[in-house]
Write a structure and sequence with these properties.
The complex is a heterodimer of chains A (about 110) and B (about 110). With about 110 residues, chain A is mainly β. Chain A contains no helices and eleven strands. In chain B, the strands form two sheets. In chain B, strands 2, 4, 5, 9, 10 and 11 form a six-stranded mixed sheet that branches. Chain B is globular. The chains are: A mainly beta (about 110), B mainly beta (about 110). Chains A and B meet through strand 4, strand 5, strand 9 and strand 10 of A and strand 5 and strand 10 of B.
Chain lengths: ~110, ~110
């Protein structure tokens, strides 16, 4: 079956702009996660959804970052007033439940000029 | 709280040689431990995971890892390296109330020399 998909694969924006990154999880997976991977580092947890609700958003760096999952499937990560330091690969993963294996998408590479 | 330390950001082995990638973890609750592989411009792929069953865990592509609680380690090994094993490898930990949220190490880049 289809894996986790993320769109766009690449996004270039200017400092101060607003961006949205989309994640389509594996069908039937109730848990969805967002991570951020900066160059030379491992993925860093941002937020985790169980169904429609954010079960843990402790990794969001500040209030410019926000994520939604209104119908318990697709999720959108929203970044306001982007800064150059936001440049990274944003990874999405999904799992059947919170203790199950996480399957990762290919990521969205965000570049803020 | 949980954390992961991967010793050695770069490891180089000859084709056919033993692969050993080191991972030490810290967790205040019984951990789940994972190894992922990432090829260039691709997503993370799970190699294997430990979830409190057998301490020696076998994964895909001939890799295995052993959970050693006394050493807080979860090192990844493969008896004989193949050129296709060249990639970046990440160790991760989750568990307890943090189940779901994974904390990753900074990765080890494996180079395989012919």
């Amino acid at each position: 079956g289809a894996g986790v998909s993320q769109t766009p694969s690449n996004k270039v924006t200017e400092k101060g702009k607003y961006v949205e990154l989309r994640c389509d999880p594996i069908s039937g997976h109730t848990a969805l996660y967002w991570y951020r991977q900066s160059l030379g580092q491992g993925p860093e947890f941002l937020i985790y959804f169980q169904g429609t609700g954010a079960a843990d958003d402790s990794g969001l760096p500040n209030d410019r970052f926000f994520a939604v999952r209104p119908e318990g499937s697709v999720s959108t990560l929203k970044i306001q007033r982007t800064e150059r330091g936001d440049s990274a690969v944003y990874l999405c993963a999904s799992s059947l439940g919170r203790r199950d294996t996480q399957y990762f998408g290919p990521g969205t590479r965000l570049t803020v000029l | 709280a949980q954390s992961v330390t991967q010793l050695g950001s770069h490891v180089s082995v000859s084709e056919g040689a033993l692969v050993l990638l080191r991972c030490n973890y810290s967790s205040s609750v019984p951990p789940y431990l994972f190894w992922y592989v990432q090829y260039p411009n691709q997503g993370l792929q799970l190699l294997l995971k430990y979830t409190s069953a057998a301490t020696l865990v076998k994964g895909i592509n001939g890799f295995e890892a052993e959970f050693k609680k006394s050493e807080t380690s979860f090192h990844l090994t493969k008896p004989s390296a193949h050129m296709s094993d060249a990639a970046e490898y990440f160790c991760a930990v989750s568990g307890g109330t943090n189940a779901g949220k994974s904390t990753f190490g900074d990765g080890t880049t494996l180079t395989v020399k012919p």
